[in-house]
Amino acid sequence: MEKVIEVKGISRSYKLKTGLKNALDDVSFDVYKGEVFGLLGPNGAGKTTTIKILTTLLLPTAGNAKVLGYDVVSESHMIRNRINFVYGGERGVYGRLTAKEYMHYFCTLYKIKNKEQAGLIKDLLSLVKLEDAEDQKIHTYSKGMVQRLHIARCLINDPELLFLDEPTIGLDPIGAKLLRDIVRDLSSKGITIILTTHYMQEADELCDRIAFIKGGKLSLIGDPDFIKQSCNHLNLYEATMSIYDIEKLKEDHYFNKLEIEVIKEPYYSLFFEANENDLEKVSAYLRQYGDILKISKRDISLEDAYIYHMKDVG
Ligand SMILES: Nc1ncnc2c1ncn2[C@@H]1O[C@H](COP(=O)(O)OP(=O)(O)OP(=O)(O)O)[C@@H](O)[C@H]1O
Hints:
Belongs to the ABC transporter superfamily. This is ABC transporter ATP-binding protein. With 314 residues, this protein is an alpha/beta fold. It has eleven helices and 14 strands. It has helices at 47-54, 76-80, 99-109, 114-127, 143-154, 173-188, 200-206, 224-229, 246-250, 279-286, 302-309, and strands spanning 3-16, 19-32, 36-40, 62-67, 70-71, 83-87, 161-165, 192-196, 209-214, 217-222, 235-242, 256-264, 267-274, 292-297. The site of adenosine-5'-triphosphate has 11 residues, from β2 and α1.
């Protein structure tokens, strides 16, 4: 498989008054052509720093990285024309322009020939489902439309590699779904995509492989199933039952990470982790609190795995 990104031991530190801050610490990974690769981690983990280094906007303080075969430090000029990026919640749009005018402006910046601009703009605005709003001024756009316009803009230079940093942040569920559909569409066209997101369901849906990053270090890398399987030892249950002493149950240390949802008293849904792997034994224990209507072991989600692996992050 062709590697489009090769990261070898990159670090990035900042000098602060309080000492040296390691934003990235000896991170290594590869990304293959055509992948949707997710970088997941809490705020301040080092995701944006990684993306800035790979998009040649920031220099690493140690290690090296190649993008499309070129070194991000010494050959950055060879990389820039062949990649593009969108930061979530990006402002930087010119509200008084229409989408078409905005795209023409960027086409000119990207030195697209005048006679090719109209056709390209039409195709790109239609790809991001903005064809009906192309003559509308951008300040009338919803957040989701603005975000899709950013995507259209970053496709002008026909990039082989796209960096999307929290592309669905602040979007409503329909706007976010539209954007995910576009990401899938771009991926099916062979564009390699590096994605950061705080939405685990989104990462699970879109990413071929995922890297967990915390405290500037890469902690786990693999496809979503592999990441979930890393938590196979967790015994997660969900139950629907009547409970007559909910306070007693809340204090029972048999249940870890207990979440309780009231359906209609005395009926509740319970979500919890137990040290016990045997459903029968867990059911027997639970019966002291009431009658069980339904109980099952729950599959491990990417969010479960994320919470487990990030648990010691403050
Ligand atoms: N210019 C800077 N000077 C000092 N520290 C910085 C600078 N830029 C980033 N950092 C620090 O580097 C660490 C990594 O930041 P980064 O923006 O890469 O995190 P992130 O994973 O993208 O977080 P978020 O999810 O909040 O976007 C943070 O602790 C941040 O405060």
